[in-house]
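Protocol step 4 of 5: obtain the predicted structure for the target chain.
Materials: sequence only (see below). No template structures provided, no constraints applied. The aim of this step is simply to have a reference model before the mutagenesis design in step 5. Sequence pasted as it appears in the construct record:
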Amino acid sequence: MVMVGFGGVAAEIYQDVVFRPAPVTVAQAGEMIDQLKAAARLDGFRGAAQADRAALAELIVQLSSQVAMAVNHVVAEIDLNPVMVHSDGDGVSIIDALVVAALEQVAE
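Step 4 output (structure tokens):
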């Protein structure tokens, strides 16, 4: 499962997150971003530069298809927070990541 959200208060109080089954396509990742209530923050809100939505969508695709699908039996969760989305054309930066190992059930 892929979850996309702005994190912090937006995710916790306003529950501004979108879920899709992994893997997702670029089009689906773009739709996920568009469906966020806070998506306007990426569109030059209050005079800020337009964010690199394409790079963010590509990160979501890569994480959902290449990483998550490859390690789905050994990793339970991957949390990238925060991800800095730079100005259009300048990409994204992953500032912190948490990878939670899947615990194998022990047969008795």
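Step 4 remarks: The chain is about 30% helix and 25% strand. The chain has a mean pLDDT of 90.
Proceed to step 5.
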